[in-house]
Design brief:
By secondary structure, the chain is of the alpha/beta class. The protein has a single domain, classed as 3-Layer(aba) Sandwich (Rossmann fold), CATH 3.40.50.1000. The chain contains eleven helices and seven strands. It has a seven-stranded mixed β-sheet with strand order 4-3-2-1-5-6-7. It starts with a strand and ends with a strand.
Length: 213
């Protein structure tokens, strides 16, 4: 058995699920236009100017999520996914996931996106286990960040799963597009990236002969 680990945004999906969902909430008038502009700004800094995924998540959280009712964000997830998810899949990576399942490999999905969104995406996949960023909720109100699944957190979580399954580095395959996941890549025997990956990841692919699909 092997452990196959999948990143979600820009890897298993061709888009950033959080950004697309917040845009959906704007259309549904659950979020203001100003909040969308702010989210786009921070996402641009993350994608092109080196803002880390942890800082991106923290800035977006404190500016747009803190103090809001979790129901505002959770209640639209299923309708959003039912309408949009089929258009978001990266078929090349999705096919690899189903191939791995046929081989009875253990499938782990790790995502920086919020759990209330990722959990519903996982329901549509043959994933054995997942972990996503989580918030602290009190009386239905979001009051803090419990966990941000950045690259280091992903590597730590994946390491615990591999240890539990008694698997070695050679048994681990990681699918990712982002340099933020480099700590996760370092623990893998094989790394697979995607055509629209971070330029730095593409350089690593060339250097280490990692596959790009």
């Amino acid at each position: 058995m092997k452990l196959e680990i999948f990143d979600l945004d820009q890897t298993l999906l061709m888009v950033n699920s959080s950004f697309c969902y917040y845009f959906h909430l704007l259309i549904k008038k659950k979020m203001s236009f100003c909040s969308l502009i702010g989210s786009v700004y921070y996402y641009f800094l993350h994608r092109f100017c080196g803002l880390s995924s942890t800082r991106l998540h923290t800035k977006v959280f404190h500016k747009f999520l803190l103090g809001k009712k979790i129901s505002v964000f959770a209640e639209e997830v299923v309708p959003f996914l039912d309408h949009k998810l089929v258009h978001f899949w990266n078929s090349s990576v999705l096919n690899r996931l189903y191939e791995a399942k046929k081989k009875n490999h253990y499938l782990l999905l790790l995502s920086n996106s919020p759990d209330f969104l990722v959990s519903e995406i996982v329901r549509k996949l043959p994933i054995d286990e997942y972990c996503a960023s989580q918030y602290i909720v009190c009386n239905g109100t979001i009051i803090g960040i419990k966990k941000i699944m950045d690259g280091s957190a992903k590597a730590e979580y994946a390491s615990s799963v591999a240890k539990r399954l008694s698997l070695s580095q050679e048994d681990i395959i990681v699918y990712s597009d982002s340099m933020a996941d480099f700590p996760l890549m370092q623990m893998a025997g094989k790394v697979v990236s995607v055509r629209k990956a971070d330029k730095r990841v593409k350089k690593l692919c060339a250097q280490y002969n990692w596959e790009i699909i």
